Amino acid sequence: MLLAGGTLTAIGSNRLDLASYIEVGKRLAPGEMLGSLPELSAIADIEEVSFPTVNSHALRHADWLALLSKIHQLFDDDRCDALVLGHGTNTLEETAYFLNLTLRTDRPVVMVGSMRPSSGLSTDGFLNVLNAVRVAASPGCVGRGVLVMLNDTIFAARGVTKASTYRVNAFVDRDYGPIGYADADSTVVWRRHEERLHTIATEFDVRDLEDLPRVDIVTSHIGADGALIDAAVRAGARGIVSAGTGAGRPTPAEDQALDLATSQGVVVCQASRVGSGRVIPSVTLDTRRIVAAGDLIPWKARILLSLALTVTTDVARIQRAFDLY
C-alpha cells in the first residue's frame, strides 16, 4: 500500500473537525493506519511503501510522473501482486485516469481516499482502505485498469468524478455507474467491465518524460470573450480544452479565438461543462479541425489530450484516441 496524502491520513483539531483539518497540518505516522486495521492480515500480506505526501490540489505533472515510476518499480521488482494507492479526493479522479492511460501493467491498482479525516467522528477512511484491499485481492480485479474505491463502491477511472464537497457518497459515475461493490458480507461483487482501452492497451509510454505538454481548460459562460483562450496560447499551451455550454457550445467570441488558436498549431478539444453526456463529432468540428471530447469531462479530456500530444499533433489521430480511450 502506498499512501500519497489526502484526507485519508489527516488529523483534525478534534473529532468534529470535518472541514478545517487541512489547516491543522497533522497526519498519521507511517504504519499507523495499517496498524489500526489488524483485520487486513486475513485478506492479504500488506506492506506500506513510503512516498512523498502532497495535498492532492497541489500536485504537478512531475508528481504524477514520479508516482508512475514508483508503481512501475514496485511491479517490476515483484514487490507486490497488487497496489492500493491512498490519495486525496480533490484530484483523485484525475490521477486515476492518468494512471489508467499510462501504467504498463494489468495488475490491480485500486485508489482509495476518504471524505472525513482519520480523527473525525464516523470517519470513512479505515473501512475504505479495508475494502480497497479486498477489491485489490479479488481475482476479478486483474486486467480491469485503475479502479477507485470509496463508500463500498467500485468505479472505473475513466468515468468517476467527485460530485460533492463533503458527503461520504461524493464519488459517482454519472453516465455509466459503478462497476461493482464491496458488500457488507466481505463479498466483492462485479457488475460490468470498462469497455474503453486502458493500461497495457494504450499507446502512451511517458516513463522517460520529465513533464507533459501544457493543455489548458477554458470554461464558457454568458458574455465570455476570447481573452482566456488568447492567454493560454501566449502561455505556451499546446492544447486547449473548451468546456462549452450544453452539448459543447462556446460563445461566438470564444469560437473566433479557438479558430485562431488552431491556425497557430494549438490542438483544440471541445468538451462540455455539463458533466454528463457526449460532445458528438460533427462536420463543423471536423472542418474546424477540433477534437470532440465525447463523454469525457473537461479535466479528463485535458489529461488525454496532453498524453495524445506526446505521440502526435495530427487531429485525426487525436480524435481516434478520444474514441478509443
Put the structure in a nutshell.
This protein is an alpha/beta fold. The chain has ten helices and 15 strands.
Distance between the termini: 27 Å
* Shape label: globular
Number of strands: 15
CATH architecture of the largest domain: 3-Layer(aba) Sandwich
CATH class of the largest domain equals Alpha Beta
How many domains? The number is 2
Helix content: 25-40%
The order of strands across the largest sheet is 1-4-5-6-7-10-11
- CATH overall fold name of the largest domain: Rossmann fold
Share in β-strands: 15-25%
Q: Poorly predicted ranges (pLDDT <50, ≥5 residues)?
A: none
What kind of sheet is the major sheet? 7 strands, mixed
Which superfamily, in CATH terms, is the homologous superfamily of the largest domain?
L-asparaginase, N-terminal domain
